[in-house]
Specification:
alpha+beta; DNA-binding; two-stranded antiparallel sheet; globular
Length: 300
DNA sequence: CTCCAGGGATGAT
DNA sequence: ATCATCCATGGA
């Protein structure tokens, strides 16, 4: 395997750091001004200077047919018409502030199993903890890949997780989530569920199919739909977004049900509601007065 | 010490 | 259909 380096020179309306640090993906590690990680099983070092995105990788068999540049361009969703998407969203006070703060943040296209598994592990966990769990799963069950004097790890396949045990998963700090991750991995490994074939389903059916998996409820399903199935309308409501909705869109109103919030979000934010949601989430999290957001963890 | 986290499954109203 | 409770873990 030989080193590959390419430059994407027209990465406009794109902010690599905001995109990778906004809580939609959990394995990228920032060292100096570069981001180390994987896209699928391909090890990547990414660095942005202005509108130039530099990608370092290794030449693998996949890359012979499909260049690293193309893989990165697809992963980072550089084809999303971001200015149009932002213009089509509402211009209320809260969302305008979030849009201004999140300029260049894109909803990326994640591998489906990796995204699903990670968000099954996300319940009642802070972003920093999810990052630690992701790292431990990769180090323990994934494959090591060397890139630019560093070692990164691929995310283990559903088959590999299915061959592990609940005890081993708990040793990765999964807690009660271990049982759910194992059960869902088994459903995929034994062909009971095929994530790729679920791509053809309309939103309602896809959400229902995802919610049928152990450890997947409406929130996780919406995250997976948004971050891995290109369903930009999906609007995950977590504790942060629920606070934002209640404080900014239902201020001084009593007894707002979660159903009411759900219906409001689905209609008000429109066909790119997922983008609005991610901007509101990132803006709220990084501007929290209580400073409860921890910086990226140092891997042990 | 207590409180909280990108929630879900379960059982009782 | 909504609501309360429990579920592990670790950082603030």
């Amino acid at each position: 395997m030989t080193n590959v380096e390419c430059r994407i020179t027209n990465a406009t309306d794109f902010d690599l750091e905001k995109t990778l640090s906004s809580g939609q993906v959990f394995h990228w590690e920032k060292i100096d001004n570069r981001f180390l990680g994987t896209i699928g099983d391909v090890p990547i070092v990414a660095e942005q200077r202005e509108s130039v995105l530099r990608i370092q990788s290794l030449e693998t068999t996949d890359c012979l047919k499909r260049s690293v540049a193309k893989i990165a361009r697809t992963y980072f969703a550089l084809d999303h018409p971001l200015s149009k998407i932002c213009a089509a969203m509402p211009n209320d006070e809260a969302l305008s502030a979030a849009k201004n703060f999140c300029h260049g943040l894109r909803i990326i296209r994640q591998p489906k199993w990796e995204c699903l598994a990670t968000f099954i592990c996300s319940s009642m966990k802070q972003v920093a903890h999810i990052r630690q769990i992701s790292l431990k799963l990769r180090q323990r069950f994934g494959d090591a890949r060397k890139i630019d004097n560093y070692t990164v790890f691929t995310f283990p396949s559903a088959e590999r997780i299915a061959r592990s045990s609940e005890k081993e998963l708990r040793e990765c700090a999964l807690g009660y989530r271990a049982k759910n991750l194992l059960a869902t991995a088994e459903r995929i490994a034994n062909r009971d569920v095929d994530l790729e074939r679920m791509s053809i389903l309309p939103d309602v059916d896809l959400r229902e199919a995802l919610c049928a998996l152990p450890g997947v409820g409406a929130k996780v399903a919406n995250c997976v739909m948004l971050f891995a199935f290109e369903r930009l309308r999906a609007f995950p409501i977590d504790v942060w977004i629920e606070r934002v909705l209640r404080e900014k869109y239902f201020a001084r109103k009593r007894k707002v049900t979660s159903k009411r919030l759900r219906e409001f979000a689905a209609t008000y934010f429109g066909e790119h509601g997922g983008y609005a949601q991610q901007y509101l989430f990132h803006h709220a999290r990084l501007n929290d007065k209580r400073r409860r957001v921890t910086k990226l963890p140092i891997p042990r």
